[in-house]
Amino acid sequence: MPSDTAALGVLEAAAQSRLLTISCGLGAAHCAARSDLPPGTRSLLMLSPSEPAFWPGFTASAEWQDGAPDPMDRWSRRVIGGWAEELGAAALFPFGGPPFQPFLSWAQQSGAVHGSPVGMLVHRGMGLFTSFRGALALPWEVTPPAPAPRPCDSCAAPCTTSCPVDALGGPAGYDVAACKAHLRRSEGRDCLEGGCLARRACPAATPGARLAAHSAYHMRQFLGPR
Ligand code: B12
Ligand code: SF4
Ligand code: SF4
Question: How many folded domains does the chain comprise?
Answer without folding.
Answer: 1
